[in-house]
Amino acid sequence: MINYITSLFFILTLLVYCFLNYPAEASNEALYLPEKGVWLNVRSFTNFSSAKAATTTSNNTIIVPPGSYSCNDLTIPQDRIVIIQPGAIISVNKGKTLIMPIPRAGRNAIFNGPGNVVFNTGDDVYPEWKGAYSNNTHPVETTSALQWAIDTQLTVDLTAGIYLFSNLEINKDSVSINGKGRNKTILQTTSSNAAGIIVANKAGTSNTTLKDLQIRGTDKNAGGLQLGSALYPAYSINLSNFGIQNFSKGFGICIVNAWWVDSANSAYLYNYDNVFVPLGAINTTTIFRGSNHIISNALNRGVNFQGTVRDVLFDGVSMESNTKEAIYSRGASSNIVIKNCYFEANSRTGTGTLGISGVAGAYQFARVLIEGNFFHETITGNAIMLDYVDKSEISQNDGIFNSGGIFTTANTRCLFRNNMG
């Protein structure tokens, strides 16, 4: 009996101690430091420095509970863990900067205000943290939040849904934008006077990645993606499981000044020109590759090279139902390789499926290797048309003669071998 009473007394004592020492319930004025076991007042983020000072050892955790917090200039060391709970909003004041590690937070708004938020460590950033919507609404807020996320130079993580925006620019190195699938994450542009996304518009860039998402337009939009500008080059662009479609009066991709573009297993559909290189552009080393890569249903040309292209490769791409040519090139001194591709039902009104020409004059002829492709039904014109082409080869293609054959001019010097069908 005595032991029972003693045990009961001990339990009651322990409960009273825990009640007296347990931190007060989280309020919108509190910030909890679990390792210290205390709540700190952070109603004004000028007091957040006290919280930071209290975390004197590495890897301490800071939890920001629901509430609204004002922030002036503040740096949180990168070895801290910051957890921002749903309902907590940090407002950075005008002209001030909050520097902190990437927080642990859900896909909801946690930052607002005119000031800046900079991350000193971390990997992925959600544009929803700055107020983006993925439900095809609020284009102004979503554009601002997407641009903020891009400018962090971290990986922009997009959810499945439709992000309605106007224009975005990538003017920094090592920007990655990742979605949840080409037909799941949609960037729907409202812009009528410029491409939805422009890479290297105000500064040169390198290492840009767009993956598992789609840029979608309408007949009112100028274009989807522009790579480089007249003054600034874009280097090393990686497009993977990426899509652009429905820019029926504009371009899908416009390559203005780009070096080393890798487009893998992507789909460019229902644009006026799916891929466009204007006269005077600079384009060197571009690859379109993959058994799931599609360049089809253009209202004009699938690929329209008006300017010179150097070392361009199409490997394993399907090109179907483009109104004019699947690939058209007229740039001086262009160098193009087309291999293992599938062509069907192109050129309702064009000169044929492939139209490759250079320009008269020394060192102005184009060079092309067309090898191992399958041609099925060129609606109007020839399977291949060549003019001002030399040092080239057309070999081991199938279906070529049942799809309009080959047309060459006297300006063509080319090796033909083992073509059939």
What does this structure look like?
By secondary structure, the chain is mainly beta. It has three helices and 39 strands. It has a 16-stranded parallel β-sheet that branches. A ten-stranded parallel β-sheet has the order 14-17-19-21-24-27-30-33-36-38. It has a three-stranded parallel β-sheet with strand order 4-7-9, with no helix packed on it. Strand 1 and strand 2 (38-41) form a beta hairpin. It starts with a helix and ends with a strand. The relative contact order is 0.05. Residues 10-47 have low confidence and may be disordered.
What are the low-pLDDT stretches, counting only 5+ consecutive residues below 50?
A: 10-47
**Overall number of strands:** 39
Average pLDDT number: 88
- Structural class call reads mainly beta
Largest sheet: 16 strands, parallel
As a whole number of angstroms, the C-alpha radius of gyration is 29 Å
Count of discrete alpha- or pi-helical segments spanning 4 or more residues: 3
